[in-house]
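Troubleshooting log. The previous structure file for this entry was overwritten by mistake, so regenerating from the original sequence record. Sequence copied from the archived sheet and checked twice against the printout by T.R.
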Amino acid sequence: MPIPLKYNKKFDRLTDEEKELLEINKKSIADFVEQSPSVSDVNFATRNAHAKTYAVARGEFLIDKNVPEELHKFFDKEKYNLKIRFSNAHLKINKSKKDIPAYGFAVRIKDENGNMIANYPLVNFPLFPINSVSVFLKLFTSVNRFFIKKWSSFSLMMQIVKVIPSTLTGSFIKNIFKLWTKRNDFFLSFDFHSVGAYRLGENMIKIKLSPTSVSKNFGKKLATKDAIEEYLTSNNFRADVLIQICYNLDDQPINRLNVEWKKSPFIKIGEIIINKDSLLDARSCDNEMLSFNPFESNPYFQPVGKIQKLRDEAYKTSLQTRLKINKLLKYK
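Regenerated output below.
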């Protein structure tokens, strides 16, 4: 078996220019969140990505008995408690029945004493269309400004054009086609992915969540939110938790997010279970204010990579602004 490539801080290091662009982006995030009640026509400040909550539920993470011996030290319990948020990736809460099939499955893992272990915001598309930190920050800033009417659609389109070349990889085109063919499938039938890499001790991994025995045709006539609630009220949900390990940057690149990893087999490390009737009140203040910042995880489970590094400040800015605004609005 090949020797895994070890984590190094150099994978996360930002340039001075990128740090400056990040500060500009953080200001655009705060501005968007402050105006998000009017953007989405709701009575609370929303996230500036994955704004729409479909459902929140309790779950369990059961460790597989056959997990490789070298991974045992990371999973010293048989099971862990989860809180899971199901969402849509759009910045604006769309109140129509039909949403774009860009879904989020965010997982918070705690031990039996309620201590935080890890946050994993997973999505149903395995790749990310941008490798350049500068291009991403400029695009994300322009999107935020567009929604709060501080940037024209022409300016936004100019930023989008810069992204197109990085979407022309074989991996990206294949997965776009796959998503298109599954665009009407039931939310819980999708695989969910970490997109970027995460630490597992000194190793670096990608994560995949693969549901078992969920019909893609469930709830065809229902809105996504209603279909998820209907399923989790009457069925137990189960999904395998799989990882890939990084052995070399040619086959498993850390900072090239628009290509799939190859020559790294999936290893099953456990299973997520959501028992029926485990739904929580998604509209409660505590659950709406949940943050799934992966940098709040144990250091040995945190994200790896330059694009991933941006998440820490973005999540903190979004949460701090939401807390401030929702306190003023007396959101309950």
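The radius of gyration is 19 Å. Archived copy saved in two places this time.
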